[in-house]
Structure formats: structure tokens, C-alpha cells
Amino acid sequence: MLQITPTLQIAESELVESFVRASGPGGQNVNKVASAVELRFDVANSPSLPDALRARVLARRDRRLTAEGVLVIQASRLRDQGRNREDARERLAEILRAALHAPKKRVATKPTRGSKERRLDAKRVRGAHKQRRAKQDWSGD
């Protein structure tokens, strides 16, 4: 079980892990050991997630989310497979914890009278500045 919160947990059977060779630190060991982890979690079809949480995760514009609703996390920061596996699981938990909190609705407000006046004053100053740049009649008639 992957514990997200005290009330939310994901069964091991819902997590699909595959191990591949990683680039980066590890020396010659990198060529022999599959230390990188690719963790897949099917958000769209998971029975563990509440509907509101599922909708928020799927609504995120995240490049790790496939068109089918599968979240793919790749972990190869560390040198051994076990630590990369824990890293991937922790990152999945962080994504789900972040989606637990619904964003606050934005309350529409109107600009204040002072801000309107400042904006119009700035426009007048800018217009006058541009007006001074205009061609002058130097003929003197």
C-alpha cells in the first residue's frame, strides 16, 4: 500500500513499475544494472481515488499524464534501484497530495476610481510626449 494521506491509500496492484538502465552517475555499474524506475499509475481507472481528486489530477496540464489518463513518473536521480523506486513513489504521492486541495475561486473585482484616474493620467502624459515629437512647422510664416 502506498499511503498518500491517513485516509487515502493506493493498492500495490494499481502501480506498474518497470526498470531500465539509467544514464548519469554510477560509473561502470550504469552499464550493467537497471537502476532507473518508470512508475505508471492509471489515474482515470483507479478505484482508490475519489472522483473529485481524479478530476483535478486529470485536469492538470502535466506532460507526465498520457492521453489515456496514465501518470508516468521516471526516477533515475539516484544510483540504486531501491532508492529510485522510493523516489518515484514519493513523487506520485506529492502529485496526489497537491491535487487534494481544491484551488480557491477567484472573486472578480472592479478597478478602483484612483487606479482608473492614474491609468488615464498616464495615457495623457504619454500622448503629450508623443505629440511633442510630431513634425514642427519651422517656416515661421
Could you spell the SSE succession in H and E letters?
A: EEEEHEHH
Classify the fold: give the CATH topology. Answer: Double Stranded RNA Binding Domain
Mean pLDDT comes to: 85
State the share of residues found in helices, binned by percent: 25-40%
Please give a structural write-up.
By secondary structure, the protein is α+β, with helices and mostly antiparallel strands. It has three helices and five strands; from the N terminus they run ββββαβαα. Strand 1 (2-3) and strand 2 (9-10) form a beta hairpin. The longest helix is centred in the last third of the chain and has 21 residues, at 113-133. The chain is elongated. The chain starts with a strand and ends in an 8-residue tail after the last helix. The model has no long low-confidence stretch (mean pLDDT 85).
Mind sketching the topology for me?
Blueprint: E1 2-3, E2 9-10, E3 15-20, E4 36-42, H1 51-59, E5 70-75, H2 81-100, H3 113-133
Antiparallel strand pairs: 1-2, 3-4, 4-5
Helix pairs in contact: 1-2
Give short descriptive properties of this protein.
two-stranded antiparallel ribbon, alpha+beta, 141 residues, Double Stranded RNA Binding Domain, 35% helix, 3-stranded antiparallel β-sheet
Task: Describe the structure concisely.
The chain has 141 residues and is an alpha+beta fold.
